[in-house]
Structure to design on (247 residues):
């Protein structure tokens, strides 16, 4: 049985009849233009927005799960995290254990290592760079060891090294038997790391399938309204908008 099963998910003016499923071990990429509905979809999956249709976690609708139960099983990394208090990195990551009511040192250390922040565990969050902070928020979600990890543009503020490093960690987390669902604007990362891609357009699912099925020049050029070149056999995969102006 699929761990996540989305059936005819709709939200007036924002999402229209989205369906897909994800099995344990899968990394799912959600791509699409600005405003396509990616964040809205992720928030519905996390049970943070009301919706029509069904969004099933292990057979139970996420809207019916008690908040603590939902937080144990479904972890969300929002597009922007922020702390109003100048807490230490380790204290913030430890907050990922709140749904479990413990302070599992092994889970906290493992999460910090996966996010590449173990060496800065005693530093204050307000004194970190944007990319460093982004990795702290990722570690916070990983520390909760959710069955389904949902992340909204987890690589957006990261340099090239940490883009690879974080994607490697998310891939490894999926391979451990979890479902990972991420919104991404970097198609090369999506092509390399994702098992399935859901391409969203104007609140609808334009196409869901393997990277090779979804990432075609015709489809991407139409949805993104610009000519896009695709070579999935290159290393790294090339999925880039063609320049129309001279250099
Ligand atoms: N709270 C809200 N109430 C009503 N409409 C909203 C709300 N938040 C976002 N929207 C609208 O819903 C649509 C989808 O927004 P969403 O944030 O899901 O897009 P996205 O695909 O994540 O975009 P981006 O790539 O820019 O992050 C947009 O048209 C947006 O203006």
């Amino acid at each position: 049985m699929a761990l996540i099963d989305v059936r005819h998910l709709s939200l007036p003016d924002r999402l229209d009849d989205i369906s897909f499923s994800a099995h344990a071990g899968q990394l799912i990429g959600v791509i699409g233009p600005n405003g396509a509905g990616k964040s809205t979809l992720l928030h519905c999956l996390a049970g943070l927005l009301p919706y029509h249709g069904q969004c099933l976690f292990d057979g139970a609708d996420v809207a019916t799960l008690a908040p603590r139960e939902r937080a144990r099983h479904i972890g969300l990394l929002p597009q922007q995290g922020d702390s109003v208090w100048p807490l230490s990195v380790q204290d913030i990551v430890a907050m990922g254990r709140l749904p479990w009511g413990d302070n599992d040192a092994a889970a906290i250390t493992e999460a910090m290592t996966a996010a590449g922040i173990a060496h800065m565990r005693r530093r204050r969050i307000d004194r970190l760079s944007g990319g460093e902070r982004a990795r702290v928020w990722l570690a916070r979600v990983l520390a909760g060891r959710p069955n389904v990890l949902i992340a909204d543009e987890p690589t957006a503020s990261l340099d090239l090294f940490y883009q690879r490093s974080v994607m490697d960690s998310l891939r490894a987390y999926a391979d451990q038997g979890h479902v990972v669902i991420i919104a991404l604007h970097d198609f090369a990362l999506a092509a390399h790391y994702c098992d399935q891609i859901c391409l969203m357009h104007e609140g609808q699912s334009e196409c869901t399938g393997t990277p090779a099925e979804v990432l075609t020049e015709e489809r991407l050029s139409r949805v993104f309204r610009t000519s896009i070149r695709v070579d999935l056999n290159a290393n790294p995969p090339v999925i880039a908008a063609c320049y129309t102006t001279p250099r």
